[in-house]
């Protein structure tokens, strides 16, 4: 009996699918990044239109920088939200605490920080390309990066619960809490029970947002007047970074230091994609791409994306794990498809009615989504420490993690404006934001253990678990 040879389907990074496939696959990638990218803009009061445009353009340029070897889509990063909220609360308090959807004065300050972040990412990427990743891992071990991820997620609890309970209008709290928890439960149900169901299974946040939005309408939380008045086409709100503002540079360093938590996230995404791409290449009879060896180049591409969004006025970026997962499901790793998705994002950034419609999203719905998303960020920190088998019976590891958690989470929730009162001229004239202080002190203590290892005092070094 003759066995028919089965054709292997899929696209490798340098493949260009036919136009029909490229458009449909590109639209799937756009839909997958859209909910989270837009939600970050809503939470931080950036312009939605420019965030979409910058996301698309940043992705295209980052792909070109990586010579189309690393298929990644770049959307808004949740990791920077807490420190951006701190910046907005200090430099644009009247706007940020109002019902305004966009606060340009605060955005201009944040832009400087995003650009400094880009410089850090590019320098670290170039350093890794020269000396390897192992040296970086000594300065930023999993106990530091994992603990920082936990801080970033949990420190945002105040923002999530504030939106859910509508602290700006306490008389509406009963209604908004109800809508927030309906949205939360629906989103969790979508994310758990739609796993492996194709494209729809990749969009639990979008589905949760739509469900919560519809539920909000009969409660009188949605108003369409602005949508009717908005033009179909509208120029996104470009802003220029506040380079001449001396206060911007201290805040810039605060924002840039958050890259400590995004480096391992980006690297993990690279390893994941490398595995899937090489499997498809093997099935197609081609040589492995081994993009896992391009850690440095990947970080340079990350930095390039942040330069683009920083200069345009979009949200700080990161390569998206949800888009990576979609690529794994569809077996489509074509960078041409990702560029197509980038063009779609850029075009839709000019649709005034779409941007205005997104801005009608009730705070209660945003709060419900945020409870889940911010909690997931925190749990990813736990997962990182767990996956790296960090030995938490080691006092050295415990000390680093414990201090980061208390200074970061406790400082953000307990201190006035979430700021430690250590004033450093030029850099931190108003004090050091808690999340940044936690990162600094965690790195310093870890460096102390590197320079003065416990073994000098006869203490036996403890290995990570099961290594």
Mean pLDDT level: 86
Q: What is the share of helical residues?
A: 55-70%
Along the chain, the helix and strand elements come as HHEHHHHHHHHHHHHEHHHHHEEH
With helices defined by DSSP (H or I, 4 residues minimum), what is the helix count? 20
- Number of separate structural domains: 1
Number of strands: 4
| Regions with little confidence, pLDDT below 50 for 5+ residues | 1-6
Order of strands, widest sheet: 1-2
Measured between the Cα atoms of the first and last residue, the distance is 49 Å
Let me know the largest β-sheet: 2 strands, antiparallel
The SS-based structural class is mainly alpha
* Rg over C-alpha atoms, rounded to the nearest angstrom: 22 Å
Q: Give the overall shape, derived from the CA principal axes.
A: globular
As a percent range, the share of strand residues is under 5%
If you had to describe this structure to a student in words, what would you say it looks like?
With 467 residues, this protein is an all-alpha fold. The protein has one domain. Helix content is 65%, strand content 2%. The protein contains 20 helices and 4 strands. α9 packs antiparallel against α10.
């Amino acid at each position: 009996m003759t066995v028919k040879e089965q054709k292997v389907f899929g696209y490798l990074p340098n493949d260009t699918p036919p136009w029909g496939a490229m458009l449909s696959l590109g639209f799937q990638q756009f839909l997958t990044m859209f909910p989270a990218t837009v939600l970050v803009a809503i939470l931080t009061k950036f312009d939605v239109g420019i965030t979409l445009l910058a996301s698309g353009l940043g992705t295209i340029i980052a792909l070109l920088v990586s010579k189309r070897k690393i298929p990644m889509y770049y959307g808004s990063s949740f990791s920077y939200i807490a420190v951006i909220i701190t910046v907005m609360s200090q430099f644009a308090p009247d706007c940020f605490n109002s019902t305004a959807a966009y606060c340009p004065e605060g955005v201009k300050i944040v832009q400087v920080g995003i650009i400094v972040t880009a410089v850090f990412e590019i320098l670290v990427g170039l350093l890794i390309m020269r000396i390897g990743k192992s040296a970086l891992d000594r300065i930023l071990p999993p106990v530091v990066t994992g603990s920082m991820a936990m801080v970033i997620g949990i420190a945002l609890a105040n923002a999530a619960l504030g939106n859910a309970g509508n602290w700006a209008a306490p008389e509406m709290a009963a209604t908004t809490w109800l809508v927030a928890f309906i949205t939360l439960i629906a989103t969790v149900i979508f994310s758990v029970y739609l796993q492996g169901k194709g494209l729809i299974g990749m969009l639990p946040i979008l589905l949760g947002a739509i469900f919560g939005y519809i539920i909000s309408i009969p409660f009188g939380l949605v108003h369409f007047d602005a949508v009717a008045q908005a033009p179909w086409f509208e120029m996104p709100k470009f802003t220029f970074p506040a380079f001449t503002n001396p206060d911007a540079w201290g805040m810039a360093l605060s924002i840039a230091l958050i890259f400590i938590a995004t480096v391992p996230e980006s690297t993990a995404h690279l390893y994941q994609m490398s595995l899937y791409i090489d499997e498809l290449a093997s099935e197609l009879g081609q040589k492995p791409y081994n993009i896992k060896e391009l850690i440095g180049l990947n970080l340079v591409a990350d930095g390039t994306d942040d330069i683009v969004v920083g200069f345009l006025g979009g949200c700080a970026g990161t390569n998206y794990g949800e888009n990576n997962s979609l690529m794994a499901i569809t077996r489509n790793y074509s960078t041409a498809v990702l560029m197509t998705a980038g063009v779609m994002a850029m075009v839709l950034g000019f649709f005034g009615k779409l941007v205005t419609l997104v801005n009608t999203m009730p705070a209660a719905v945003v709060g419900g989504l945020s409870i889940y998303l911010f909690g997931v960020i925190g749990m990813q920190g736990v997962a990182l420490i767990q996956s790296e088998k960090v030995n938490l019976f080691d006092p050295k590891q415990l000390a680093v993690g414990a201090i980061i958690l208390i200074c970061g989470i406790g400082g953000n929730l307990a201190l006035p404006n979430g700021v430690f009162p250590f004033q450093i001229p030029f850099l931190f004239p108003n004090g050091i934001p808690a999340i940044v202080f936690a990162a600094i002190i965690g790195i310093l203590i870890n460096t102390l253990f590197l320079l003065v290892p416990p073994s000098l005092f006869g203490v036996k070094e403890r290995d990570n678990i099961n290594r």
